[in-house]
Amino acid sequence: MEWNLPTIIGTLIIAAIFFAIVFSHVRNKKKGKSGCGCGCDGCANKGFCHPENKPDNKDTKH
Predict the structure, then answer these.
(1) What is the pLDDT along the chain (62 residues), one digit of tens a residue?
(2) Of 9, 26, 37, 61, which is the most exposed, with the fewest CB atoms less than 10 Å away?
(3) pTM for the model
């Protein structure tokens, strides 16, 4: 297989776009944003994306 400069540049551009998209999704996930880009009020899968925070049993004294 022969590599030439346009092939290498094109591959690097596609790889950069791919990694930018993945980085954006990871950053949004860490911020707690939805992955679909729309509101979650009427979504049937809201419980899977944003589970409600359950209180820790560590803070309660028995």
Answers:
(1) 677 999 999 999 999 999 999 998 888 878 877 666 666 677 777 777 666 655 555 555 54
(2) 61
(3) 0.52
